[in-house]
Amino acid sequence: MVNSPKTPTGKAKKGQVAVRPDSGSIKACFPRSYFDEGKQMKLATGIPMVDGWEATASKLQRRLQIELEEGKLSDGQGNFNLGRYQEILEEYGLRASLRSPKLTVVSDDQLPPKPELSLLEVWDMYCEYRKQGLRETVYENSYQGQYRNYLESAIEATKSEDALKIRNWLVENRYSPKVKNLFSALSKAYQLGIKNRLLTHNPYDGLNDEIMTKGAKGKKQNEVENDNDVLDQSKAYTWDEVQVILDFVETKYPHWYNFLKFKFLTGCRTGEAIALMWQDIDWENERVLIRRTYDRVTKKFYPLKNDKTYKGEECRRFPMIKDDELWKFIKSIPQGNSNEIIFKSKTGKVIDLGNFGIAWRGREAIQTKGIIPQLINQDKLTKYLPPYNTRHSFITHAVFDLGIDEKIVSKWCGHTIDVSSKHYQDVAIFAERVNPHLPQTTELDILKQQLQQQQELINKLLADKDKK
Fold it and tell me: What is the DSSP letter of 73?
């Protein structure tokens, strides 16, 4: 329990605010002496009654005590200033209580009325609860980004907050695995509300049970960055098509050329290419070090180990054989300071993925045709693929065209593959010596060469014998 300084009886001193559990929820309890009503003032705070609630309650208590002593919680006529109280809650991110019109003064023996919470208020309450346990990128991109956008879109499209209507619309129009995750989280959000007596039932209980993990008719699915299909050749450009794209970009969009070519030559993720710095180019050991990524929402750089995708790796090593294509390409770029990013926007700043996306796919509203649509109209390409599929194009080229072992390619590019840890480590050591841009010689090829050489030697010996 978090109170202000207490007397030997355990009660707060006269004139002190207390923030504590009361009738199943966390309430702010204000002293009688400050208001003309002469009643104990108890108001819901919106603090979830879960482990760790005391820290938030303690901060709120100190703030309310200062506001009370400065007279800001009084309307000047001896009445409680409910508007100011709501503003303070909003500052502390306790939004679950803000839109409730039922916050009232209650006596000691009364229970506060249950607030009516909208779907988005329930979601925001849950996000606030989960915030401390999530990586910043996951919180901003998924919980307050993609998942919240899904809910807003569904509410707007259905003109309703009916759980079944929301579910059916999202299943039909958004990426199903994400929708399944969202409904699992929504069910937990409502359970949290019920536990804290803010809600009476959970309309999302079990609604994710029959959602398939594949498909979705919405266009948004095509833009999802997903490594599950990196060996699907239908989702990659052929290497001849890659050359067509690069030639076109070099002529028409030269400021995007280096960035795009690096993505095609390495298969790295977009955020990794944006975050590459000159200190990551290891000329001596002939390799590129992939050590961080850039997040477009938070606009921050993060080490790879912060993302579960990389299984805790702090660095990936991509081979850059001396005087080969990748080596010469990076050498051709004017070098900067060690902590300077290599690929920049037209204005010399960090690349904005939104601007790159517009250049790639076009945008009718601003009369931008787009790289890929123009090439399709010229019959040089047959299909549109998102920018992320530059990664697919490299991987399928390396595996199917050059014959490089998939385990080696997976180590270069950091995508998951089912193989034992020991064998994967052996592959990792070997991978740094493989040229990613030359066809690989298999054991069968070597054997064929040896047999051919032996046959040539036999033929020569026979010819010499005949001469004698």
Answer: T
pTM above 0.70, yes or no: no
Sheet with 18-22, side-by-side order of all strands: 18-22, 25-30, 41-44
Beta bridge partner(s), residue 368: 363
Q: What are the angstrom distances between the C-alpha of 124 and each of 5, 60, 128, 347? A: 32, 19, 6, 37
* DSSP result, 114-176: PP---HHHHHHHHHHHHGGGS-HHHIIIIIIIIHHHHHHHHHHHHTS--HHHHHHHHHHHS-H
Q: How far apart are CA 314 and CA 304, in angstroms?
A: 5
Q: What are phi and psi of 191, to 5 degrees?
A: -65, -40
Query: Any idea where the domains of the chain sit in the sequence?
Result: 1-115, 119-223, 228-431, 439-468
CATH of domain 228-431: 1.10.443.10
Which DSSP helix (H) or strand (E) runs through 80?
none
Under the banding of pLDDT at 50, 70 and 90, the label for residue 297 is confident
pLDDT given at position 75: 67
